[in-house]
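Repro:
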Amino acid sequence: MSVDIWIGFTLILLAAVAVGNCMLPMKYTRVWKWENTWLVFSLVSLVAIPWAMAAAAIPDPAAIYAQASGRDLAVPFLFGAGWGVAQVLFGLSIVRLGMALGYAIIIGLGAMLGTLVPLVAQRPEILGTGKGALIFTAIAVMIAGIAICSWAGRQREKSGRSAGVVPGGSYRAGVLLAVVCGVMAPMVNFSLAFGQGLADGAMRQGVSAANASYAVWPVGLAGGLVANLVYSVYLLTRNGTWGHFRRLRPDVFLAVLMGCLWMGSVGIYGMAAGFLGALGTSVGWGIYQILMILAANLSGLLTGEWKGAGGRPLGALWTGLGLLAGAVVLMALVNR
């Protein structure tokens, strides 16, 4: 494999570790409720950091948007809006299912759809080749891993001894939320994959292909902000929790850290996709998502989510994680 491919894989690994742990700080908030944390997290990750990164990487981002066509702006924005709904569901699913199972369902489905849709739309000629067969095999292995992880999570929930997870009947509702979220989650990748007009505008200003994605994120994530902002404000008003903002420390730092981890990961993934070439937004996305699951499960294990769950659920979890690791290897072989 070329040096660029190795750089791309290394960046994806860093991005996956960051985003696989971006929800972890929420476990340690003291006064703030979910909606307080999510509002600050959304403003940091979807507004402040994307614009700061675009301003740092691109000589004149405003000129790109002024010269872009309506379609170039609308497509990433609308995909981002769909992803914004998934982002709200993501936070709720993690509360109900825990990091390990929540990430397995959501990121697993997102990995499958986020890999296949750009591939079918942009590189359909690959589907009938050996590389296409490897991709489909990797997806099948990944689905098996997700199914086993989900079964393990169900057994853990039945035991009634899992830590850090809302118990009882919320499991079914949590799984439903996670499935819907998983279907819509890859829309953030579609913003990048189909926002090439904005990336091309950045490259015309002399920006490298690896950094051109920074022109897409402010537009795509602005669409994502809508659902997150509306839902957070609704909950703050309904629950009367605006007053919690009077006590900022330490919860504000935890929310900002969540935003930095998440958007930092997205920015690094965008760079990695540039290094991986034509398949960066398909195969690269699949690798990125699977590595997220592995990182999140490790965090879930270390923070006690599976304490007291029993040997069979833990054994199944490790089997599922092994299959997911195998799927990463298969997808990596596509870029040999």
